[in-house]
């Protein structure tokens, strides 16, 4: 059993993920030494998860290990980047070996699947919190930026929207999803970063964002950065059975449109690539659905079955919004 900080790091973190040839020096020195491929940009992103804000104290540590990495790989996917390296800053209230082993299991299973190596980090004592910084590679010309959407471009989303948000509602006791509960919980605990989808479409799509704060808020970021508006056709939004049942019985679109945590991708595609994008996406194991298009202006307009505007309001989850 590790007794010092160095033994702890060595035991749990020094062999997480795969061994990559572009890691010239990994964990154990003052810095890692890393080789970015010629002609590619280094895409870098960091996300922090804090107990009591992003997860509860009794969270399953294996799911937390998965999610801490997944949300970062999702940012790389949203940039069209190939995941490569991660660093992990971990603040722990105490050394709980069972907890740490489970956390590392969740983290490393996902790291292995995406050929990612943990190359460094920091371990300190304090209230439970963790930051993961992800590094990936992308050719600058195909990076999926937020500021490139143009009127006429098509808006696609991957997977289904609202599952994680409905899981939170179910957990609060405000809604009973019956048999659908376990599947919703899995979507909240184990989001799947849409890396392969982004890699497959990055030379056709011009922009993307991952949906962490709700479709309207995240599509809103693309619109704002690009100086455009958008039309979203509500009947086209892909919904799982439990979310569809919720929307129909409660007559409430806020879960698929405004709840976060799904980590699906919203992709912007020039209209001429529609056929090619849809045929490429058909080979992948995640759905891709056309939900609307970019327009002149600055608002996002949601339309119902009859093409009439539906008032939903904008905004997803904002940590600093005054209530
Ligand atoms: P320093 O005192 O130079 O900051 P540390 O004692 O924090 O060094 O870390 C020693 C080595 O272990 C470094 O290579 C660092 O990147 C790595 N490391 C520390 N904590 C973690 C962690 N949670 N995950 C991965 N690597 C870690
Ligand atoms: Mg340190």
Describe the structure.
It is a single chain. By secondary structure, this protein is an alpha+beta fold. The protein is built from ten helices and 13 strands. The chain has helices spanning 5-13, 61-79, 97-113, 163-171, 181-189, 195-201, 215-226, 241-250, 254-258, 274-282, and strands at 23-25, 33-34, 41-50, 82-92, 117-125, 129-138, 154-158, 207-211, 229-233, 264-269, 288-295, 300-303, 309-310. It has a seven-stranded mixed β-sheet with strand order 8-10-7-11-9-12-13. Strands 3-6-4-5 form a four-stranded mixed β-sheet. β1 (23-25) and β2 form a beta hairpin. α2 (61-79) runs parallel beside α6. The model is unreliable at 314-318 (pLDDT under 50). Residues 9, 13, 27-30, 88, 90, 118, 120-123 line the site of adenosine-5'-diphosphate.
Strand order of the largest sheet: 8-10-7-11-9-12-13
Assembly category = single chain
- Principal-axes geometry comes out as globular
Mean pLDDT: 93
In N-to-C order, the SSE pattern is: HEEEHEHEEEHHHEHEHHEHEEE
Short description:
The protein has ten helices and 13 strands.
How is this fold's topology laid out?
Elements: H1 5-13, E1 23-25, E2 33-34, E3 41-50, H2 61-79, E4 82-92, H3 97-113, E5 117-125, E6 129-138, E7 154-158, H4 163-171, H5 181-189, H6 195-201, E8 207-211, H7 215-226, E9 229-233, H8 241-250, H9 254-258, E10 264-269, H10 274-282, E11 288-295, E12 300-303, E13 309-310
Parallel strand pairs: 4-5, 9-12
Antiparallel strand pairs: 1-2, 3-6, 4-6, 7-10, 7-11, 8-10, 9-11, 12-13
Helix pairs in contact: 2-3, 2-6, 4-5
Keywords:
four-stranded mixed sheet, seven-stranded mixed sheet, alpha+beta, 323 residues, binds adenosine-5'-diphosphate, 33% helix, globular, binds magnesium ion, 10 helices, single chain, 13 strands
């Amino acid at each position: 059993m590790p007794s010092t900080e160095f033994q702890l790091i060595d035991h749990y973190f020094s062999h997480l993920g795969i061994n990559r040839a572009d890691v010239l020096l990994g964990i154990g020195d003052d810095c890692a030494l890393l080789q970015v491929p010629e002609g590619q940009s280094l895409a870098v992103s960091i996300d922090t998860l804090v107990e009591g804000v992003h997860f509860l104290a009794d969270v399953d540590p294996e799911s937390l290990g998965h999610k801490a990495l997944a949300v970062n790989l999702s940012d790389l996917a949203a940039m069209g980047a190939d995941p490569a390296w991660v660093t992990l800053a971990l603040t722990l209230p105490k050394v709980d070996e069972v907890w740490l082993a489970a956390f590392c299991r969740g983290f490393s299973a996902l790291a292995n699947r995406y050929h990612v190596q943990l190359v460094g980090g920091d371990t300190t004592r304090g209230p439970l919190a963790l930051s993961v910084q992800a590094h990936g590679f992308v050719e600058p010309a195909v990076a999926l930026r937020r500021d490139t959407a143009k009127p006429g471009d098509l808006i696609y989303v991957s997977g289904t929207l609202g599952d994680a948000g409905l899981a939170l509602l179910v957990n609060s006791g405000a809604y009973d999803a019956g048999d659908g509960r376990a599947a919703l919980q899995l979507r909240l605990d184990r989001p799947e970063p849409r890396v392969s989808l982004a890699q497959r479409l990055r030379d056709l799509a011009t922009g993307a964002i991952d949906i962490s704060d709700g479709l309207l808020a995240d599509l809103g970021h693309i619109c704002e950065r690009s100086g455009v508006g958008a039309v979203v056709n509500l009947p086209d939004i892909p919904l799982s059975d439990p979310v569809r049942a919720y929307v129909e019985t409660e007559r409430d679109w806020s879960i698929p449109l405004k709840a976060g945590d799904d980590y699906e991708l919203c992709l912007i595609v020039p209209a001429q690539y529609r056929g090619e994008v849809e045929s490429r996406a058909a080979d992948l194991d995640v759905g891709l659905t056309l939900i609307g298009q970019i327009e002149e202006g600055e608002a996002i307009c949601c339309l119902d079955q009859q093409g009439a505007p539906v008032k939903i309001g904008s905004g997803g989850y904002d940590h600093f919004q005054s209530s």
